[in-house]
DNA sequence: TTGTATGCGTTATCAC
DNA sequence: GTGATAACGCATACAA
């Protein structure tokens, strides 16, 4: 579409289009060109604030393009993801954004032979289907656990819900780091596959505390659980951070305002969404090399909830 | 599609379809039939938990149908909603779900003359474009305010963020009820158009408390703000509910687990989403009468954060 | 009932 | 370049 038309003529055309009430028919367009401007997005949950933020990044980045997005949520089921993938690929999408690196074998196959660029988000490893943007949940958990140890906590515990692949990698990071310092005890780990919530955090903490009185710090799978732990600690008059250290994951906005403010691992959800779209569009339009893996990183936000050893926090 | 085929034959057909790798082409289908199976959804925000829950209801209800959903967020802008509406209507959608009743004049016009069923969600009034499912934010605020009065609070205040039309109606409900009891003071009301957050709740409460020391109860526009108020009260060693009553709005899951548990107005977000889809599909398929307005109600959840007069709570 | 031709609105191709 | 025309893949109306 060369812009060699005079502004004058251009306007006239626009007016004519408007007068005739012409509206392009997308169905006819994609049928004729056998090309769509649809980018498929599969996330595990729409209500989880983490993925909602990713989604916001995706929508925002897409606004300056003329791609449409087709959203689906897999509800943390690899099987459901697989069937969604089939439907999506049937539409011959311009690109695909999928969550994580734990697709089913069949899904992986479908993705490998897909005709469009694919970007996996939220995690990174050295075996991408195509594009990838995320961070290492394992490393993030290691850093958080190390922080607890450095603060002087010795009875390290872990509370986890949902236990999707990313949660499991966080647990591994916790395990390896705590073990390395000779501070790991299976007895101080409690997990469930139930959906995460503040209430669940309180319940799991209550259970864990009763079972393991030597517990003096918990690394929570996510911020909802951490908040629940804090509420339950307050109910039981357990001083935080004096008697109990609490560390969350994701650093939702409320963590900084809680009383006491809660330490958490900052992750860049919005940015991952934006980045994923940018990479994808570049790949679709052939302006960027493919096979790229970008590590978007994370950052531990140290706050009062873990300031046992450094009251200055 | 009469099911007069033998299961035997049916399976054979399915196998043949699978063998040939046949995948229906939706573009060709909509082009030929000049009908789409797309339902457009416009919500103000994807990250706001309230709308995320609505969305979950929508996606869930849609799973048993063969409609697709086209999602867009207006970012609380009537102007943006208008342009989204134009794009959506250009696609000749099978139906449309829009948020609220405060569309721009032009949007209203577009909706009125749209060829498909429309459902407005989140609110109700007696002037629907077509279908409607929601509840009265005004009434809900009245009930919440009355509760504070019944508990014995006299220095009633209001904290509001975003101040979209629904928030404004809640403020009106608060105003009218408090005024009716001779307990309204403009000095105890603080609002901002900034986006709501826990941090903002804490800030607004700090400001309000400094300005109006006679404040002894706050009705918050939403639960994030209420949680922020609670944290700030704890920081300032203000006893809740003894010296300060707190009431939120929406009853997010965390409200029941907070310490103290926070009173809130339960709203049925998920159900509104489901109901909207069901009404829409019925209207599209002509199996239901149109023009229906369904009041999905709300319920005040009384908890310790407002138990000044009834310690038994 | 079963089969066949025409049209949906665009893109893309091929003559010109 | 410019303008006519053949696909694109399915639905549908009509003929058999």
From TrEMBL, chains A, B:
Keyword set, alphabetical order: DNA-binding, Plasmid, Transcription, Transcription regulation
InterPro entries named in the record: HTH_LacI (IPR000843), LacI/GalR-like_sensor (IPR046335), Lambda_DNA-bd_dom_sf (IPR010982), Peripla_BP_I (IPR028082)
Keyword Transcription part of the UniProt annotation: yes
Domain named HTH lacI-type: residues: 1-33
SMART domains: HTH_LACI
CDD domains registered for this protein in UniProt: HTH_LacI (cd01392), PBP1_GntR (cd01575)
Domain of life of the source: Bacteria
Any Pfam family matching the protein: Peripla_BP_3
Key word Iron present: no
Protein's name according to its UniProt entry: HTH-type transcriptional regulator GntR
Organism: Nitratireductor thuwali
Gene: gntR_2
């Amino acid at each position: 579409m060369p812009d060699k038309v005079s502004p004058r003529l251009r306007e006239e055309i626009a007016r004519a289009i408007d007068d005739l009430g012409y509206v392009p028919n997308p169905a006819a367009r994609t049928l004729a060109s056998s090309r769509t401007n649809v980018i498929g997005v599969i996330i595990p949950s729409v209500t989880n604030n983490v993925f909602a933020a990713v989604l916001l990044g995706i929508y925002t980045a897409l606004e300056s393009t003329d791609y449409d997005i087709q959203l689906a949520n897999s509800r943390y089921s690899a099987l459901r993801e697989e069937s969604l993938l089939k439907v999506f690929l049937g539409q011959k999408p311009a690109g695909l954004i999928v969550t994580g690196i734990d697709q089913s074998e069949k899904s992986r196959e479908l993705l490998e032979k897909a005709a469009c660029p694919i970007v996996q988000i939220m995690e990174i490893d050295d075996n991408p289907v195509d594009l990838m943007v995320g961070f290492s949940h394992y490393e993030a958990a290691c850093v958080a656990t190390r922080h607890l140890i450095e603060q002087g906590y010795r009875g390290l515990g872990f509370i986890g819900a949902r236990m999707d692949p990313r949660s499991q990698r966080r647990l591994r990071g916790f395990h390896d780091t705590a073990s390395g310092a000779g501070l790991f005890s299976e007895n101080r780990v409690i997990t469930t596959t139930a959906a995460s919530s503040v209430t669940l955090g309180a319940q799991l903490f209550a259970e864990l505390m009763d079972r393991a009185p030597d517990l003096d710090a918990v690394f929570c799978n996510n911020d909802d659980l951490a908040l629940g732990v804090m509420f339950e600690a307050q109910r039981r008059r357990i001083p935080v951070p004096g008697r109990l250290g609490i560390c969350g994951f994701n650093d939702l906005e409320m963590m900084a305002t809680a009383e006491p403010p809660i330490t958490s691992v900052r992750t860049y959800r919005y940015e991952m969404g934006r980045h994923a779209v940018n990479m994808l569009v570049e790949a679709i339009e052939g302006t960027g090399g493919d096979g790229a893996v970008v590590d978007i990183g994370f950052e531990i936000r140290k706050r009062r909830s873990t300031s046992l050893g450094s009251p200055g926090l």
